[in-house]
Amino acid sequence: MKIKFIFFLIFFFSTITNTISNINDKIIAKIGSTIITNYDIINEVNTILALSNRPANENEFKKLQDIAFASLKKLLIKEAEIEKYKIKNYSQSDVNNYISKLEKSLNLQNISLQEHFKKFGANYDVFLEGVILNFKWNTLIYSLYKKQLD
After folding, report:
1. Residue pair 36/69 in contact by the 8 Å Cβ criterion
2. For residue 135, is pLDDT > 60?
3. How far apart are the C-alpha atoms of 134 and 126, rounded to whole Å?
4. CB 83 within 8 A of CB 31
5. Terminal alpha carbon distance of the chain
6. What's the Cα-to-Cα distance from 107 to each of 57, 102, 116, 124, rounded to whole Å?
7. Contacts (Cβ under 8 Å, ≥6 apart) of 45
8. Distance (Å, whole) CA 55 – CA 52
9. Looking at the whole model, is its pTM more than 0.90?
10. For the purposes of burial, counting CB atoms within 10 Å of the CB of 134, is it exposed (0-12), middle (13-18) or buried (19 or more)?
11. What angle do CA 109, 115, 120 make, to 5 degrees?
12. 27, 37 Cβ separation under 8 angstroms
């Protein structure tokens, strides 16, 4: 009897947890085989605010959501092409230089970009994946069109 009760409790709490997480995370769009959720949009808005180093303005929220959605669409399209061409190479030193320049341009002193993102509620790891994806995209574009460059 105890075992049945324990299994019931585990099932009950896992169902409640899944239900609550589903309520908070709606699917906004599907690009290819990947979905964009409202969490993705909110994170991208927070990332935009962190990169512009300014607090949220209620009047601009709809415009920021539109910019965030467009940015996520572009990123997913790039990701699909990178997977299609099996691009794995990018320069880690270029990524590090980009992050350093970004920290300098945001005038971050005694704080890392990762800590700055936390202050804005943005996910630094998702941002970094996007940066790496853009460097892979540059590699792809160069490899496709290098013969046409002078």
Report:
1. yes
2. yes
3. 12
4. no
5. 78
6. 21, 8, 11, 17
7. 56, 61, 64, 65, 68
8. 9
9. no
10. middle
11. 110
12. yes
The answer to whether the beta carbons of residues 65 and 38 sit under 8 Å apart is no
- Measured CA angle at 73 (ends 108, 75), to 5 deg: 50
- pLDDT tens-digit readout, 45-88: 999 999 999 998 899 999 999 999 999 999 999 999 999 999 99
CB 24 within 8 A of CB 99: no
Closest by alpha carbon to 74, among 28, 31, 42?
Answer: 31
User: What DSSP line would sit under 90-142, residue for residue?
Assistant: --HHHHHHHHHHHHHHTT--SS-HHHHHHHHT--HHHHHHHHHHHHHHHHHHH
3-state secondary structure of 37: strand
- Nearest residue to 38 (alpha-carbon basis) of 76, 79, 69, 73: 69
As a residue count, the chain comes to 150
User: Tokens 């049945």 — which residue?
Assistant: 4
Given its phi and psi angles, is residue 111 left (phi above 0), alpha (psi -120 to 50 degrees) or beta? beta
Amino acid symbol at 125? D
Tokens of 46: 């927070």
